[in-house]
Task: inverse folding
């Protein structure tokens, strides 16, 4: 479609967002330029503030505000110091924090190994993880990556590195999700839930 | 989830975009603050430029750049002057233009009548349409609204106003979409295609 130039530039920028295709970007751009509550300007301001103030924590690799480095989670004295949770992205930390079930600290890997995308060990924060094992006297690393093939391969690779340094490596339990019925559980999940069955 | 404040503000602004829920907004916000190609700044710049330069055409109600008012379509001398196409939004104009099948001019209604949302005649650009009928000596108005109940009711209402002023009102043909099989066509579409059958 032929658009106005300022609209084209806006659509091109919106299309770069994750999960946003050409159609969604066009729809958002039209909504933004037609919005009468100043949404375009509010969003622009929020972007500029976030761009200025949000930074990467030099210790865990998560995001933090510029004046807090290391981040609030890394410097929180109430958290267990010997337990480290490895995740792929900062969003995973927010998710785990929201369940209030983990009291240790975090380490953001920055993704998983992916030969197809040319993402190797050097592209992940693996060396930073290994040096933290020693400098922070870590007893156990909970490797909380996804359950796709590449993430599982990454987890196995990390587990080997971690245990070879005398540190315990663990991972999240597999099983049927809370609130789900056996009828609707897929075969892999079910067989893993059976393997990991627990005493009643 | 508990986030950093600048991130919260960004998520809140992104959530106001059409079709974007909490989860998508969080995903986009994380991607934006972690992007290393300056995407946040580029998007902010595109928003500010669009916000400054994009305006509403005083004649057709579509969007235009601030220095072109009336817009390029309204002032294009090559377009048929007696034929006006009424659409709900500027996006519809871009869509119709992309098929190269319409040579007249446009009028943006700004939505359709919706009692549920409290959207009445006063909220649409109906008076502007009626005054254009006379001032631009319009012969025919193609009412190109959607096919949901509210849009059809709006189209009927407009058709009455238009024909009562001695101007011809028409609408888009109903029928089976190009490239589609009869097997996959829904009953309403099919029955309308039969009603509107054409000589071979």
Result:
């Amino acid at each position: 479609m032929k658009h106005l130039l300022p609209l084209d530039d806006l659509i091109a920028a919106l299309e770069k967002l994750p999960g946003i295709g050409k159609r969604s970007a066009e729809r958002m751009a039209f909504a933004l330029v037609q919005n009468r509550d100043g949404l375009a300007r509010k969003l622009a301001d929020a972007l500029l503030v976030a761009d200025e103030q949000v930074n990467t924590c030099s210790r865990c690799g998560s995001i933090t505000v510029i004046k807090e480095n290391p981040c609030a989670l890394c410097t929180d004295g109430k958290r267990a110091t010997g337990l480290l949770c490895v995740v792929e992205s900062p969003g995973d930390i927010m998710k785990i924090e929201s369940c209030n079930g983990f009291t240790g600290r975090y380490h953001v890997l920055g993704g998983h190994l992916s030969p197809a995308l040319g993402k190797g060990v050097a592209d992940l924060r693996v060396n930073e993880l290994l040096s933290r094992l020693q400098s922070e006297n870590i007893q156990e690393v909970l490797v909380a990556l996804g359950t796709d093939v590449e993430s599982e391969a990454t987890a196995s690779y990390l587990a080997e590195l971690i245990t070879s340094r005398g540190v315990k490596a663990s991972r999240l339990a597999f099983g049927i999700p809370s609130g789900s019925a056996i009828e609707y559980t897929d075969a892999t999940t079910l067989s893993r839930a059976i393997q990991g069955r627990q005493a009643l």
